[in-house]
C-alpha cells in the first residue's frame, strides 16, 4: 500500500492525471501554465522526500496542461542529499497509482558539446549511470531485473521532437551521464565522459528513469543546458549559475512540453 497515493486520491478528489512531470532546478516556470492548479506541499504527503536544494520548491501541482490532466512534481530529492538512489520511489509510485501512463523528467545539465551552449534544450535519448548506484538494489524479487534497452519511449520522443519543430525551437538529442554529485565534475572526468559518448552530465534523472520502468511507465526526458562541462571554458562551475541559466532554456522546454502534451488532447 502506498500511503502517499491514498492521501493524494483523497486530497485531489479523484483527479486522474495522464502524465507525471518532474521539474528540475530552476524549471518551476512550467507550473505557471497549469490550468486550475491544485497544490499540495511535499511536507503534507506521507513518505514524500523534502529536497534540501535551493531552486526546488517541493510541491505537487495537479491540473490541466494544454487540456490534458497532469501531475507535476515541482522539485525532486537527489541521490547526493542522503546517498539514497531510491529517494524518488514514493513519489513515482504514487503517480503510477494515481493513474499516469507516462512520466516526463526534466533536469539542468552541463553540456559536453560546443554546439550545445547554455540555454539549449536536449532530449535525452539514452543515459550512462556512472554513479555506480541503482534504486532497485535491495528489491527482493526478479522484478528488479528491469530491461533498459528501450528506457526512453520512442513514440514520446517523436512527439517531443515534432512539438519543438512546430514551435521553431531547436531541440538537440543526446546521451545524459549521471554523476552522483554534489561536487561538480573535474576537467578529467568531463574528458572521460566525452570519450564514453556522453553529450551532457548531471546529478539526477537516471534513478527516476529506472524506477519509472520498474513501475511500467513510459518515459521521456529532457535537459536544459546551464553551463559547459568543467575545463571546457576555464571558468569554475557553481549552483548559482545553474539557477540563473535554467530559466532561460526552461521557458523553451516548458513551451515544448505544453505543445507536446496538448497535441494528445
Automatic annotation (TrEMBL):
Molecular function via GO: purine-nucleoside phosphorylase activity
InterPro entries on file: Nucleoside_phosphorylase_d (IPR000845), Nucleoside_phosphorylase_sf (IPR035994), PUNP (IPR011269), Purine_phosphorylase (IPR011268)
N-terminal signal peptide: none
Keywords: Glycosyltransferase, Transferase
Gene Ontology BP term (one): nucleoside metabolic process
CDD domains attached to this UniProt entry: PNP-EcPNPII_like
Gene3D superfamilies cross-referenced by the UniProt entry: Nucleoside phosphorylase domain
SUBUNIT field: Homotrimer.
Pathway: Purine metabolism; purine nucleoside salvage
Function: The purine nucleoside phosphorylases catalyze the phosphorolytic breakdown of the N-glycosidic bond in the beta-(deoxy)ribonucleoside molecules, with the formation of the corresponding free purine bases and pentose-1-phosphate.
GO cellular component: cytoplasm
Keyword Transmembrane helix annotated: no
Origin species: Sinorhizobium mexicanum
Keyword Signal found: no
Family as reported in the entry's similarity comment: Belongs to the PNP/MTAP phosphorylase family.
Lineage, highest ranks first: Bacteria, Pseudomonadati, Pseudomonadota, Alphaproteobacteria, Hyphomicrobiales
Record EC number: 2.4.2.1
Name the record gives this protein: Purine nucleoside phosphorylase
